[in-house]
Predict the 3D structure of the following.
Amino acid sequence: MKIYNTKTRRKEEFKPIHEGKVGIYVCGPTVYDYIHIGNARPMIVFDTLRRYFEHKGYEVNYVTNFTDVDDKIIKRSIEENVPASEVSEKYIAECKKDMEALNVRPATVHPQATKEIPEMIDMVKTLIDKDHAYEKNGTVYFKVRSFAPYGKLSHKNIDDLESGHRAEAHALKVTGEDEKEDSLDFVLWKPKKEGEPSWKSPWGEGRPGWHLECSCMSKKYVGDTLDIHAGGEDLIFPHHENEIAQSEAANDCEFANYWMHNAFLRINGDKMSKSLGNFFTVRDICQQYDPQVIRFFMLSAQYRTPLNFSQDLIEDASKGLDRILNGAEKLKEIADKKNGKFITDDEQKILEEEMPKFIERFDEAMDDDLNTADAISVIFELVRFTNANTDENSSSDYADCLYKILFELCDKVLGIHIERKAVEMDSDEVSEIEALIAERTAAKKEKNFAKADEIRAKLLDMGIILEDTREGVKWKRA
């Protein structure tokens, strides 16, 4: 498998630290509100990466955190007059509900920053002892110039960074709000302010800096060196750059061998923003669209490609997913009949010669830097092939084999369910639908096709799709 490494700016062959195992750390959300649709992209993309590694036989340690101490959380707690911990715990629970709706599997571990404070204090001590950090009046800063490779991920020049920070740093020093030795230095530990959560430390009561949190949680739950560190491209600088600096300065080893970053999600061509009125939570979107359509849409583009979220594109994704579900439904119906027919020679030939080609092409797409767009194209071709090569005369065992292949690639790897959710309907609604179908059947027998079409259209308006088969009329929810 080849992965585009943000650090080297090229695709590289993936080689795990430990044979047959892979350790992945993905930066998770700050939990002060419902997660937005932009948060959903890395969740879905890197959940799919995890699934694909498992498909290839790897044992995956997949860790993604919750940032549960942050200025935004504190602001929300003050607004609602509740403890910050109550805010974060509420939105962690809500985030997990949204992840489940999107079929994002729970991580191996979901660490929370507030539960890992001792490890953070230990890392700060280590950095001070190694002269990579210093304390000023309860604030501990990381000395950026003490880490020579600073900028190696974002490819930023330290002198250019200094000029960009100079004016800002001067303004802060004039007001007495900053005591950095260098304008580039960043905070590892900050002192307590009135009403904020805090923890005891050698530098007084306070709380950790954001960058420090991920360095410590990834070290504890994955290791000093990660196989893969991932997240949105907005985290490359300064968050991931600062993680590298403090982790490698403390641990004296490479922090991560591969860096993966997904591109931004735009809304109708614009950057998502509350001021533009185009800020949507996952909860909002899932009330309008099936969460599986959202997942399918997110995977319809390769993860490093910017993705535009619009109603038209979501409708297109819904139609595309429906083609796959229809193909799967056809196979399932034949398989479930248990018709007792033996697999024919022609069917056996398809299973042995044609199906491996589809699986190989799917894997080739995924091996090419997780190209889910091309992988989905292979799924469409597979569905077209199975539609053309199965009918009511096919053996159930043959159809079952085809269904299992589609299930493995689509459901298990891409995380897209290929069975429609059963929609609960009350008996009166079912009776009305069946009465209309009977009325339509009678109209067709009387050759009153205009009335039959009228009833079909009425049922479609009710969200019911009809299918005329040899066994009679079948219906399903649209």
